[in-house]
Amino acid sequence: MSKILRHILFYLGGVLMLLPFWILGTFGNNVSVEQILFHVMSGLEAVEATDRTLKVSFVQHVLAVPLIFPLTAAIIPVIASRFAKQRAGDVEKLLGATCILLLLAGSGTFIHKLHIFQYITSRFGRDIFSGLYADPGKQHLKVPDRKKNMVLIYVESLESDLSDLRPGHRDAISEIDDLPGRQVKEFFQAPGTGWSIAGIISSQAGVPLKPFYYNLKEEGNFMGNFDRNGFCPSLVCLSDILARYGYTQYFLTGPDLKFADMDKFFSSHHYDYPIGSAEWLKRGVDKALFTSWGEGLQDDSLLDEAYKIITAERAKKHPFVVSLLTIDTHFPDGFPSPRCSSEEAQSSFVGAFRYTSKRLASMVGKLIADGALEDTDIIIMGDHLFMASDEQVRDNFSSDRRVYFKMITAENRKPNRDRMTHFDIAPTILDLLGMRKNPDEHFGLGISLFSKIQPEQYGRHLQQVMSDEILSPSIVYDRFWSSRRQAGM
């Protein structure tokens, strides 16, 4: 074995050994192979939009630290030649065997820690998705007597356990809890919904996000061709339907929209005003306020801007949807605003949630005081569970965790069941807006909270959509990446 090859194998073995620990330490133990694949396939633009400290951490811990292995392997023969020249050949053989062992150990660690084997075997599961999926483009819709507006607030990592954290039953989101409305306690995180863009897509289209597929007709085997076709252009989403009924649609967030290809999803699905860091700057927002994750706008400033937009849209007397995604409560410790208290800034993720909760409740409270509920429904929900580390789970969370969901409406409408997934949100919103003739109709994999489905029947449905087989290869799912829009849209 040549010395150059040996050094390469030592380095690769070190990278494979350290990479899964960096991934899990950075994104939490809930990270999935689908999430990793999605971000890898998103390309360089998405990488450039990530937080600078994240990129520095990756270079330091994954690319730089493994250099210790080949450097050590280069030094050992030099030392051996000085003190035991007759054993130099044995040292070379030992190093050759060691680099192979390190590569095998690194590969084994990578496969085990990231559950690669389980992911590969799941690719050969049954296609249950195709049998469960109901095309939203074939919904039986109607024009309501009065078109209401919708404010949909995705709060980064918001989950119900944050109301009762260990130790001491701490409530990190008391202000959100104290807002009026109906909360659904049993909000399950289904496969393919456990990170931000996946939570957004699953709640908008009633499907999980599955980046790994093969599309023969489009001749693109990973996530289609964004530049040519767009992001799932044949997938009918809530936004596509609302655009057809004259709704002006915003999506507001703090960081760059290029991250996770959010910009491509919004441009493919009829959002009129997707706004991230670049767009906020063009709108004149002070550059000094961009100090959150990915050098994005902090939550308090985002919520202030959202309030201005909602107020301006209400004055136009034209139906609108304003969706927004906060970011300051991102794993592992949040990104506290410079305007939060010193206690909140020093309390890790708990303080970040307390401050965002306080500012969010203040914004919603102002909307309610303005009379917004007369024409506007409000939903507050988590985009996914908090991606807690093993230590954070052990010290703070229960073993039975749920995503947070609350509806705030003038009628204080009560849902017909207390269980849901992300897939159920789009049909629930259409029912809140009075646009569906039949609340029992399925939407993608979703069933509205206002459906009169029997508990036992929904339980069977829930069991299916919570199965890992929902991510198995599906001919129906692959068609979403086709440039040909589904019938009816």
CATH class of the largest domain: Alpha Beta
CATH-scheme architecture of the largest domain: 3-Layer(aba) Sandwich
Roughly what percent helix? 40-55%
Distance between the termini: 61 Å
Q: Order of strands across the biggest sheet?
A: 2-10-9-1-8-6-7
Supply the number of structural domains: 2
Structural class: alpha/beta
| CATH fold naming of the largest domain | Alkaline Phosphatase, subunit A
Count of helical stretches: 21
CATH superfamily of the largest domain: Alkaline Phosphatase, subunit A
The whole-angstrom Rg is 25 Å
Shape: globular
The overall pLDDT, averaged over residues, is 90
Main beta sheet strand tally, sense and closure: 7 strands, mixed
Strand content: 5-15%
Oligomer: single chain
If you had to describe this structure to a student in words, what would you say it looks like?
By secondary structure, the protein is α/β, with parallel strands linked by helices. It has 2 domains: 3-122, no CATH class; 136-481, 3-Layer(aba) Sandwich (Alkaline Phosphatase, subunit A). The chain contains 21 helices and 13 strands. It has helices at 3-27, 33-41, 44-48, 52-64, 68-83, 88-113, 116-122, 129-132, 174-178, 196-205, 226-229, 238-244, 262-268, 277-282, 299-316, 342-345, 348-369, 390-396, 425-432, 455-465, 475-478; strands spanning 149-155, 182-183, 186-187, 212-215, 220-222, 248-253, 273-275, 320-325, 376-382, 405-408, 419-420, 442-443, 446-447. Strands 2-10-9-1-8-6-7 form a 7-stranded mixed β-sheet, with helices on both faces. A two-stranded parallel sheet has the order 3-11. A two-stranded antiparallel sheet has the order 4-5. Helix 1 runs antiparallel to helix 4 (52-64) and helix 1 (3-27) packs parallel to helix 6. It is globular and about 95 Å long. Mean pLDDT is 90; it is low at 213-226.
